[in-house]
Amino acid sequence: MPKSVFEFALSFNLPMNYITFDIETYNIDETITRIDPKNMRVSVIGAYYSWLDKYVAFTEDTVQDFLESLKLCDIVVGFNHLWFDLPVLAKYSSWDFGILRSYDILLEVEKKLGFKVKLDDLAKSNLNIKKTDSYEHFRYYHRDGKWLELIDYCMNDVLITEKLFGLILQGQPLKYADMLQIREVTLDLPKTGSQTSIQVDSLF
Questions:
Q1: What is the DSSP string of 158-177?
Q2: pTM summary value
Q3: Residue 66's CATH number
Q4: What is the extent of the structural domain holding 117?
Q5: Most buried one in 48, 140, 154, 183, CB count within 10 A?
Q6: Count of domains in the chain?
Q7: Residues 6+ positions from 142 with CB-CB distance below 8 Å
Q8: What is the pLDDT of residues 104-156, one digit of tens each?
């Protein structure tokens, strides 16, 4: 018997609507260099809509459009979005993100391994691609008005996350570097029910 709604849908080749997303942020006070969701605002949101098979970019003035679209999907997919992206987006929302069904790949990896794995490392090991830039550079894109570069950087992260999620849905293990060896970890498929930050924190 399928353990999750995704397993059920896959077994009968049924479509499931999901959004894979990532955000890039800026700090109004540029003297603060510490990365803290409480101090961050949205500069760009990148999203993949499975039922449209399209990638869409949003900026801060269109955040509400993205937030409304979250209500249309069966599940929201990200990489560290439960700890970072959603808390930042909460500043723009009047409704509780706790109603969302979320699948956080970073969290799922940490649940299995007991430690975090970087998105860039997973991209290199599993997809033979990498992030387009480093934090040392892209953190200044918003300040310098480099919107095309910022959108490209964000969308590449969404592409990586989406492709990794595709492997997970196919039941394929994810490869990761452990010292000098390449190991594998098989993640659980998404399950029904929402997963709030409180529930996430209680896992560790």
A1: HHHHHHHHHHHHTTPPEEEE
A2: 0.84
A3: 3.30.420.10
A4: 5-201
A5: 154
A6: 1
A7: 24, 26, 43, 150
A8: 999 999 999 999 999 999 999 999 998 876 666 667 788 888 889 899 999 99
